[in-house]
Amino acid sequence: MINKKSIDFIIQHEAGGRAYYDKVLQKPTWPGGESGITIGLGWDLGYNTEKQFIKDWGKVLSEPNVKTLKAVVGFKGQKAKLSLKGELLNIRIPYNIAYDVFVKSSVPRFYKLALSIYPGMVNLNEDTQGALVSMIFNRGASLNGDSRKEMRAIVDLIEAKDYEGIAEEIEKSKRLWEHKGLDGLVIRREAEADMIRDSIA
Questions:
Q1: DSSP secondary structure letters along 146-168
Q2: Among 108, 101, 95, which residue's Cα sits nearest to residue 6?
Q3: Per-residue pLDDT of the chain (201 residues; tens, 9 = 90+)
Q4: 20 to 30 Å CA-CA from 67: which of 80, 107, 125, 179?
Q5: What is the pTM of this model?
């Protein structure tokens, strides 16, 4: 598992911290692009199954809220955007509940997902593991296609414990979001790379 510093890092980049969460993200949102309706700390209903939704949220939300959210599981992009109305806008998820689900369910799931493509990750220092989990949390674990070439390159760099190389590939991948109005993702990749470099300084 990743350390608290890494957990706080991902929360900061997913939700902008506690104050922003309380002000904006207590209710379901649609972040844009091909995202689905998102709740809690980066929990995207568009990219999760109904089974996973019930497992993570079924016991901590009211039955009416579970029913309302369940109806938009799998919706992505414009379909998700157009569904964000009515009862969905009345739902509020307190930060402590969102944090609990994040730490007990989301983090272990994405750590396991990161290990599925980077098994040698367990031999790296904690901050580097955290940076890699942050990237997988944001991007998923596919290694296919040109947009994933940096993620593929990281496989061998992890085995070689080449920390600078890993950081460089993560930072290089910001090419995908530069000059597209997605500065948050550019900043996140730079921050992940910096976290790795700082861990070996």
A1: GGGHHHHHHHHHHHTT-HHHHHH
A2: 108
A3: 899 999 999 999 988 889 999 999 999 999 888 899 999 999 999 999 999 999 999 999 999 999 999 999 999 999 999 999 999 999 999 999 999 999 999 999 999 999 999 999 999 999 999 999 999 999 999 999 999 999 999 999 999 999 999 999 999 999 999 998 888 899 999 999 999 999 998
A4: 107
A5: 0.89
